[in-house]
Design goal:
Blueprint lengths: L4 H12 L23 H4 L9 H17 L5 H12 L2 H11 L11 H13 L7 H22 L12 H12 L4 H15 L18 H12 L2 H13 L3 H5 L15 H17 L5 H18 L7 H4 L2 H9 L4
Helix pairs in contact: 1-3, 1-4, 3-4, 3-6, 5-7, 6-7, 6-8, 7-9, 8-9, 8-10, 9-10, 10-11, 10-13, 13-14, 13-16
Length: 329
C-alpha cells in the first residue's frame, strides 16, 4: 500500500479538525502549588489540542508531512496559515519555559520527546518557512534531555505504550543523524547494550491496550543501528527461527473504539505495519522481504478504515497510518 493524494487529504482534514481543538484535553501536569492552576492553553499555546500534548505534536507532524508531499492539495493552504499563526517565537518560548520547570523533568518522556524532535525533523524540510528554525530550540533542548536520560536508563522500557524506549529512540535517531553525532553514538551504544544480546522472543504480545509492539519497535531500532549483515541474523534469531513472527504476529481485534485504551489496538496494527515494512527494507532476501510486506499490508488494511469515526482514535491514528505508509520517514 502507498500514500495517495486522496489519503493525504483525508489525513489532513482529520488533523486540521483536532490540533486546535482545545477540549477534551488530558493534561500531564505536576502541580507545585495553587499558583499552578491554569488552562492547558496557558502552558501550551502551541500544543493545546488533540486531547493531549503528544497527540497534538504528532498531529502537526502529520499536517506538515502531507503538506510537503502534496503542496498543491486544497488543504495545504489551511495547513500553512495555521502553522504560521501557531509556530511563533512567543508561543514556542512558552513551551520551552514549561519544559524547563524542575517539575517537568519527566514531562512526556520519552514518547512526546520523540515526536517533538521528529516534528522538527519534518518542519526543517519546508523551505521558505520559519517553522523549522522556530522549533529548533525546543528540539535541541529535548535532544539534551535524551542524552541525560540515556545516561541513567539502566534497562529498556518494553511496554507497548507511551513509555516504550525503542520507539522514541527511532524517532530521535532519525532527527540526530546529520545534526547531533553525539546523540547518534549514545543511542547506538545504548541500543546494543539493551537489545544486542536478545534472541528467541516469547513475550505475551499483544497487551490489551498496546499501540506499539514491544519486540518490533526494538527490532526497528536495531535495524537502524546495525548494518544489514549484522542485523539480519539478529532478527532471524529474535522472531523468525522460533516461529513467533509466523505464529503470533497477526492483526488484532478492536472490540470498542469509543474506549480510548481499547482503541490503542488500531494503533498497534498500524505501528506493526510501519515496523514490518521498515525492517523489510533492511533484509537481503527477496522472500523474506515479501513475507514482511504481506504481513504489513494485512495489519494496515485492518486499521486504515478506522482512522476516522470516534475521537478516541481520530485524534492520533492518522499519524501512525502515515508512518506505516512512509516507513522511512
Amino acid at each position: 500500500m502507498a500514500l495517495t493524494e486522496d489519503t493525504a487529504r483525508r489525513f489532513a482534514r482529520v488533523a486540521l479538525g483536532h490540533v486546535a481543538r482545545a477540549f477534551p484535553y488530558k493534561d500531564d501536569h505536576v502541580f507545585t502549588g495553587p499558583d499552578d492552576l491554569r488552562l492547558p492553553q496557558a502552558a501550551h499555546p502551541v500544543f493545546f489540542g488533540s486531547f493531549d500534548w503528544h497527540s497534538c505534536v504528532h498531529g502537526w507532524w502529520t499536517l506538515l508531512t502531507v503538506r510537503r508531499l502534496y503542496p498543491d492539495m486544497p488543504e495545504a493552504t489551511a495547513i500553512e496559515a495555521l502553522a504560521d499563526t501557531t509556530f511563533t517565537a512567543e508561543k514556542l518560548a512558552a513551551e520551552l519555559a514549561y519544559l524547563d520547570r524542575p517539575a517537568s523533568r519527566g514531562f512526556e518522556r520519552p514518547y512526546g520527546w520523540g515526536w517533538l524532535i521528529y516534528l522538527h525533523h519534518e518542519a526543517a524540510r519546508h523551505e521558505g518557512h520559519h517553522w523549522g528554525a522556530r522549533l529548533e530550540p525546543l528540539a535541541r533542548a529535548i535532544a539534551a534531555r535524551f542524552r541525560d536520560y540515556l545516561a541513567i536508563l539502566t534497562y529498556p522500557i518494553t511496554v507497548g505504550t507511551h513509555f516504550n524506549t525503542a520507539f522514541a529512540l527511532v524517532l530521535a535517531r532519525r532527527w540526530a543523524t546529520g545534526r547531533d553525532p553525539e546523540l547518534v553514538m549514545l543511542i547506538d551504544d545504548w541500543a546494543e547494550r539493551a537489545f544486542g544480546h536478545r534472541r528467541d522472543y516469547a513475550g505475551w504480545e499483544p497487551g490489551g491496550d498496546e499501540f506499539l509492539s514491544p519486540v518490533l519497535t526494538a527490532a526497528l531500532l536495531m535495524a537502524e543501528v546495525r548494518p544489514h549483515l549484522a542485523f539480519a541474523p539478529w532478527f532471524d534469531a529474535l522472531v523468525v527461527t522460533n516461529g513467533w513472527l509466523a505464529r503470533e504476529c497477526r492483526p488484532v481485534t478492536v472490540s470498542d473504539r469509543s474506549d480510548g485504551k481499547i482503541a490503542h489496538l488500531d494503533g498497534l496494527n498500524l505501528s506493526r505495519a510501519w515496523c514490518l515494512t521498515a525492517i523489510a527494507a533492511r533484509l537481503g532476501g527477496e522472500a523474506e522481504r515479501a513475507a514482511l510486506h504481506q504481513l504489513a499490508d494485512q495489519h494496515l488494511a485492518a486499521a486504515l478504515p478506522h482512522v476516522e469515526g470516534d475521537y478516541m482514535g481520530e485524534h492520533w491514528l492518522a499519524s501512525f497510518a502515515l508512518l506505516a505508509l512512509l516507513p522511512g520517514g
